[in-house]
Amino acid sequence: xxxxxxxxxxxxxxxxxxxxxxxxxxxxxxxxxxxxxxxxxxxxxxxxxxxxxxxxxxxxxxxxxxxxxxxxxxxxxxxxxxxxxxxxxxxxxxxxxxxxxxxxxxxxxxxxxxxxxxxxxxxxxxxxxxxxxxxxxxxxxxxxxxxxxxxxxxxxxxxxxxxxxxxxxxxxxxxxxxxxxxxxxxxxxxxxxxxxxxxxxxxxxxxxxxxxxxxxxxxxxxxxxxxxxxxxxxxxxxxxxxxxxxxxxxxxxxxxxxxxxxxxxxxxxxxxxxxxxxxxxxxxxxxxxxxx
Length: 292
What we know:
Helices cover 61% and strands 1% of the residues. The chain is mainly α and 292 residues long. A two-stranded antiparallel sheet has the order 1-2. Helix 6 packs antiparallel against helix 7 and helix 6 crosses helix 8. The protein is elongated, with a radius of gyration of 24 Å. The N terminus and C terminus are likely disordered.
């Protein structure tokens, strides 16, 4: 109970600061501490606060709807290229909208150059509203990183389970992993390249998820070596190389480019099969995966 009261008191303070900063008032509420407390309670209830500058008085209205030009809060909407259930767990909608706004801001400007005001503005909210859902900017990054890495682990796991035989499993895993990093390139850039900005415990948690991805690839490679279908001297090094090859797609891929995510996935699957010396590789030629 004390924690809940503390959170509400903090919200009241932030709303008061926001009102003072912008010279705004709530319609029908005088600029008193009682009016501010009432506004904060409405903010907590509606989970959304946007500033309406359509009147000369600069009044504030509360709404659950996004402003025109705000980030599409539907899962995978504006941040990437189409529907994706990765963000469905983020509730309420205002929290999801803020998370997607943070994805775009971090991808465009980098974590350290992005401010909470930048994120709130993209989401069509006030900076005060952001703190109702996330205590810090780093907490936003942690949520994005956790959801993104859990999704990538699931992509690899499902691809691995969808095929039999090491070459087919490896090709399916690479194809799916590459496609995800191409189709979700905005999210993936943040997930893969802003890791160093996470705080201690959060960093440790995300690194463990990254290692799980590596373990899946290592398991496939080890099975292929055991059956004589792969020629790989350094399984761990090769797994890291394959993952790095796939992840890097997010850095350069652009929607509308010369290749689709599916075409890039097929290309990379063939390249990796050649890398591990699989006879199942396109063209059937041997490959090399040595040390280093």
